[in-house]
Design brief:
The structure holds 2 protein chains of 2 kinds.
Chain A (H helix, E strand, L loop, with lengths): L4 H13 L1 H30 L13 H27 L7 H8 L1 H20 L1 H15 L5 H25 L11
Helix pairs in contact in A: 2-3, 5-6, 6-7
Chain B lengths: L1 H11 L2 H19 L5 H8 L8 H25 L11 H10 L3 H35 L3 H18 L4 H14 L3 E2 L6 E2 L13 H17 L3 H5 L13 H9 L2 H16 L5 H15 L11 H25 L5 H12 L8 H4 L1 H29 L7 H20 L3 H18 L5 H23 L5 H4 L1 H30 L1
Antiparallel strand pairs in B: 1-2
Helix pairs in contact in B: 1-17, 2-3, 2-4, 2-17, 3-4, 3-15, 4-5, 4-6, 4-14, 4-15, 4-17, 5-6, 5-14, 6-11, 6-12, 6-14, 6-17, 7-8, 7-13, 7-20, 7-22, 8-20, 9-18, 9-19, 9-20, 12-13, 12-14, 13-14, 18-19
Classes of the chains: A mainly alpha, B mainly alpha.
Chain lengths: ~180, ~500
C-alpha cells in the first residue's frame, strides 16, 4: 500500500511475484474476510438491540448498523475477488507455511517479547519491565559484542529509569510503579 | 490596525518572549516527533508553565509549540514511516519511500521548507481574511460536516493501495472501531460486552500507534539476517542540502499554494484539522500532477503537498477562534483556555477589545514559523543520525516509547493492552496488503460523522437535505468524483501493468 509505502509495496510485490504464495495469499484473504463477515453479522444483530431515542430518529445502534452492513458487503466483495485469484493459481508446494514462519521468526520473537512486556508493565512496574524488555529485545535482535552489550545496557537503563524519571518529575505523569515501587 | 500591529510587535519582540518561544518550538518539534506524543499533549503540558507570563508571552509560547508540533511530525513519518501525529499520515506516503531509497535528507529538507511555506501562507491568510473565512466556516451545518467526512473517507480509500475495495474496507473498519464504547449522543455503552478493556472504546491515539508503529516496527525486523548484522534502517550516506531542497520546493509553486490554502480552509472548519487537511492536500496534488502514478513511490510533490497542507492548518485553526470564539480543535480550545486564564474574554469582540494581543498572536505565528525553520534546519543533521542507529536498538526503544505514549494519554493500563491487540491486528492487515491509513482516519472521523449525521436528522428528519444544501451537495459530488477518478486511474494503469 502506499501509506505504509514502498517498503511494504516492494515486499508485497515480491510476495505476489511468487506463484507459490499467490494462492496462499488469496486463501488468507478468504479466511480473514470470511471470519469478519461472521463477526460483523453477529455485531449487526447485536446493534439492533441497542436502545433507540425518543428525541431523534436514529438510535444508538443505527450508525454502527449502517457501517456494519456496508462492511459486510465490502468483505463479500473482497472474497469474490480473492476467490478468483484462488481458483486461478496452483496449489503451493508443501512446507510453505513452515518456511514462512521460519522467515518471520525474529518478528514473532519480538512480538512475543513485546506481549510479555505489556503484561509485565502493570505486574512489575514500568521501570523494571522496560529494563528487561530492552535488554532481552536487543539481545534477540543480535547484540553480541562486548561494546554493543555495554551500549545496550546504557540504552536499557536510560529508556526505562530515565523515561520514568522524566515523566514522574518533569511531566508529573506517574507511569505504573508495580510492587517494587 | 497598524497601531494594534505595532503594539503587538512591541510586546512580542522582547528577549524573554522570544526565548520562551524558542523553547516552545524545540519542545513542539521533539514532542511530535515521538510517536504517540501529540501536539495537544505538548500544548496541555505547556499551559501551566505560561500562567506566570503576561498574556501575549504565554499565548506566543503556546503558539510556538503548536507550529513546531506540525513540523515535528515529519521526522518520524519520513525516517521511520510512523506518523508522529495524525496530521502527518499522508507524509508517510512519499517522504518514507524517499528516505528508504537513500534520500532521507532530501525528504526532511523538502518537508521542512514545505511546512514553513504552509505556515507562512496560513498566517498571511489569517491576517487578511480571518473574519470572512470564519463566516463561511460557521455556515457549515451538520449536513455539511457529514458530507465532508464522506468526502474525506472516499479520498482516503481511493488514495491508498492497489485495491480500492481494501482501502474502503479498512476505512469502514475504522468507522466501526470508533463506535465501540459510549454512544456520543446518548452515552449508551456499545459493543463493550461488559469487558473492562472495551469500556472506554478505542482511543484514536492508541489505534494510531498500534496500527502504524507496532506493525511497521515488526516489519523492520522481518529480515532476520539484516537485523542481526546490525543493518541500519536506511542504508545510505545521508546528505542534507537545505538550499537544494528550497529550490526544489519552489519548483512546485502551485502545489505549495494550493496545498497551503486547502490546509487553511480545512483548519478553519471547526473539528476538521490537520488529519483531514494533509490527506486532502495530497489528494489534490495527485489529481493535478502530470505524473500521478509516481505518488506513493517517493515523489517530492507528495511530500510538499502533505507538509504544507498540515502546517497551514495551524493558522486556519485560529480563524474561527479569533473571529468568533469557536475553537477549531482541542489545541485551539487549550489556547482559548490560556487566554481566559488571563481574564481575556473570547468572542467576536476579541479583535476589537484586544487588537494588540490579536495582532501580536499573528506576528507570533509568523515568528514561530521562522523559528521552526531555523531550529529544524540546524537540528536535522542530529535527527538524521537516527538513520545510523541499528535496528536492534531503534525497534525496542520505539516500542517502549509507544507504550509510554499510549499509557500517558489517559493514564490507563487497559490502553496498553489495546495497543498490543491493535498492533497485532495491524500487522496481520499489513501482511495481507490492506492499507492502514484509512483505518486510522476512520477512527478519528467516525465520531464526527456519527454525531453530525444524527444531529442533522434530529434537526430535520428530511434526509434529502444532504443533497439540497449547496455545500453539502458539492462535497458529496466531490466524493463521487473522487471515486470515479480513482477507478479511471486504475483502469488506465491496468493495460500498462499487463504489458509490463
Amino acid at each position: 500500500m502506499s501509506s505504509q509505502a514502498p517498503s511494504q509495496q516492494t515486499r508485497s510485490s515480491d510476495r505476489v511475484a511468487d506463484p507459490d504464495t499467490r494462492r496462499a495469499n488469496a486463501l488468507a484473504h478468504l479466511v480473514l474476510n470470511g471470519a469478519l463477515v461472521v463477526l460483523f453479522s453477529m455485531l449487526f444483530v447485536h446493534a439492533g438491540a441497542l436502545p433507540s431515542s425518543m428525541w431523534e430518529p436514529l438510535g444508538a445502534g443505527s450508525f454502527p448498523r449502517l457501517v456494519l452492513a456496508v462492511l459486510i458487503v465490502t468483505n463479500l466483495g473482497i472474497m469474490v475477488q480473492e476467490w478468483r485469484h484462488y481458483r486461478s493459481n496452483t496449489a503451493a508446494a508443501p512446507g510453505l507455511v513452515r518456511r514462512w514462519l521460519w522467515r518471520h521468526r525474529l518478528a514473532f520473537g519480538v512480538l512475543a517479547l513485546f506481549a510479555l512486556y505489556i503484561v509485565g508493565v502493570p505486574a512489575l512496574g514500568f521501570r523494571l519491565a522496560s529494563l528487561l524488555f530492552l535488554v532481552l529485545a536487543q539481545l534477540a535482535l543480535g547484540v553480541r559484542r562486548p561494546r554493543s552489550l555495554a551500549i545496550a545496557a546504557i540504552i536499557a537503563v536510560t529508556f526505562s529509569f530515565g523515561i520514568d524519571w522524566l515523566f514522574r518529575d518533569v511531566f508529573i505523569i506517574s507511569l505504573p510503579r508495580g510492587p517494587f515501587g | 490596525m497598524t497601531e494594534a500591529l505595532f503594539a503587538g510587535m512591541d510586546q512580542l519582540f522582547t528577549l524573554s518572549t522570544m526565548a520562551t518561544m524558542l523553547l516552545g518550538v524545540v519542545a513542539g518539534v521533539i514532542a511530535s516527533a515521538i510517536p504517540g506524543f501529540t501536539i495537544t499533549m505538548a500544548i496541555v503540558l505547556t499551559l501551566p508553565l505560561t500562567f506566570s507570563m503576561d498574556p501575549l508571552q504565554g499565548i506566543a509560547t503556546m503558539l510556538a509549540v503548536y507550529v513546531g508540533g506540525y513540523s515535528g511530525g515529519l521526522i518520524s513519518a519520513a525516517l521511520l514511516g510512523i506518523p508522529g501525529t495524525p496530521s502527518s499520515v499522508a507524509t508517510t506516503f512519499d517522504a518514507f519511500p524517499m528516505a528508504r531509497s537513500g534520500q532521507p535528507g532530501r525528504a526532511l529538507a523538502l518537508g521542512i521548507w514545505s511546512s514553513f511555506f504552509g505556515a507562512l501562507v496560513s498566517v498571511i491568510v489569517l491576517i487578511i481574511a480571518a473574519p470572512p473565512l470564519a463566516m463561511i466556516a460557521v455556515k457549515l451545518g451538520a449536513w455539511e460536516y457529514f458530507s465532508l467526512i464522506i468526502f474525506a473517507m472516499t479520498v482516503v480509500a481511493s488514495l491508498v493501495g492497489k485495491s480500492m475495495l481494501k482501502g474502503l474496507m479498512t476505512g469502514l473498519l475504522g468507522l466501526f472501531i470508533a463506535t465501540v464504547g459510549a454512544d456520543p449522543m446518548m452515552g449508551v455503552a456499545r459493543f463493550t460486552f461488559d469487558i473492562d478493556l472495551l469500556a472506554n472504546g478505542f482511543p484514536f491515539l492508541v489505534v494510531l500507534i498500534g496500527i502504524f508503529a507496532v506493525s511497521q516496527l515488526l516489519q523492520e525486523v522481518e529480515d532476520a539476517e539484516q537485523t542481526k548484522h546490525g543493518k541500519q534502517l536506511i542504508p545510505a550516506n545521508v546528505t542534507f542540502k537545505p538550499l537544494d531542497a528550497l529550490r526544489e520546493t519552489l519548483t512546485y509553486p502551485i502545489n505549495l499554494l494550493r496545498s497551503s490554502l486547502v490546509g487553511v480552509f480545512i483548519g478553519a472548519v471547526p473539528g476538521a484539522g490537520g488529519s483531514i487537511a494533509n490527506l486532502l492536500a495530497y489528494d489534490q496534488a495527485k489529481r493535478a500532477s502530470k505524473t500521478p502514478e509516481k505518488f506513493g513511490t517517493g515523489t517530492p510533490e507528495g511530500v510538499i503537498a502533505s507538509e504544507s497542507g498540515n502546517s497551514a492548518t495551524s493558522g486556519g485553526g485560529l480563524i474561527p477562534m479569533i473571529a468568533l470564539g469557536i475553537p477549531g480543535s482541542a489545541v485551539d480550545a487549550v489556547l482559548m483556555a490560556s487566554l481566559m486564564v488571563h481574564g481575556i474574554g473570547i468572542g467576536p469582540r476579541l479583535i476589537l477589545d484586544h487588537g494588540d494581543l490579536v495582532y501580536g498572536m499573528f506576528m507570533a505565528m509568523l515568528l514561530a514559523a521562522f523559528m521552526v525553520l531555523v531550529v529544524c534546519l540546524f537540528s536535522m543533521r542530529f535527527f538524521l543520525r537516527v538513520t545510523d542507529v541499528p535496528r536492534s536498538v531503534i525497534v525496542p526503544v520505539v516500542l517502549v516509547c509507544c507504550v509510554v505514549g499510549a499509557f500517558a494519554l489517559n493514564n490507563r493500563v487497559t490502553d496498553i493492552y489495546l495497543l498490543l491487540g491493535v498492533g497485532i491486528f495491524g500487522y496481520i492487515l499489513s501482511k495481507l496488503d490492506y492499507p492502514l491509513a484509512p483505518l486510522v482516519l476512520g477512527v478519528i472521523l467516525g465520531p464526527i460523522a456519527e454525531t453530525n449525521l444524527r444531529r442533522a436528522l434530529m434537526t430535520d428528519e428530511n434526509w434529502t437535505l444532504f443533497f439540497t444544501r449547496p455545500i453539502s451537495l458539492t462535497l458529496l459530488i466531490l466524493a463521487v468524483v473522487s471515486v470515479a477518478f480513482a477507478i479511471r486511474q486504475r483502469l488506465r494503469q491496468r493495460p500498462s501493468e499487463k504489458t509490463a
